[in-house]
């Protein structure tokens, strides 16, 4: 287990130091999904909501990132952990 941060070093967005409990792969997945959402979804989500639409091309990009069916095993799916699936959702 990683060494806890010293007083004054606490991350204001991670009071419980959950980040230290994640594997490197889980942090990478979280950061990748976070960046994808910031770049591709957040700028236009309000407009899509108002119009009742969602761009189909983003579905392919989400698949390319391995986000679709990621918790399933077989069928070409990754079979990721429940933690990884929760981070991506």
Automatic annotation (TrEMBL):
Subcellular location: Mitochondrion
Keywords: Mitochondrion, Oxidoreductase, Transit peptide
Domain Acyl-CoA dehydrogenase/oxidase N-terminal: 24-89
Keyword Mitochondrion attached: yes
MF annotations from Gene Ontology: fatty-acyl-CoA binding; flavin adenine dinucleotide binding; glutaryl-CoA dehydrogenase activity
EC identifiers of the protein: 1.3.8.6
InterPro entries, per the entry: AcylCoA_DH/ox_N, AcylCoA_DH/ox_N_sf, AcylCoA_DH/oxidase_NM_dom_sf, Glutaryl-CoA_DH_mitochondrial
Leader sequence residues: none
SUPFAM superfamilies (alphabetical): Acyl-CoA dehydrogenase NM domain-like
One of the GO BP terms on file: fatty acid beta-oxidation using acyl-CoA dehydrogenase
Protein name as it appears in the record: Glutaryl-CoA dehydrogenase
Originating organism: hydrothermal vent metagenome
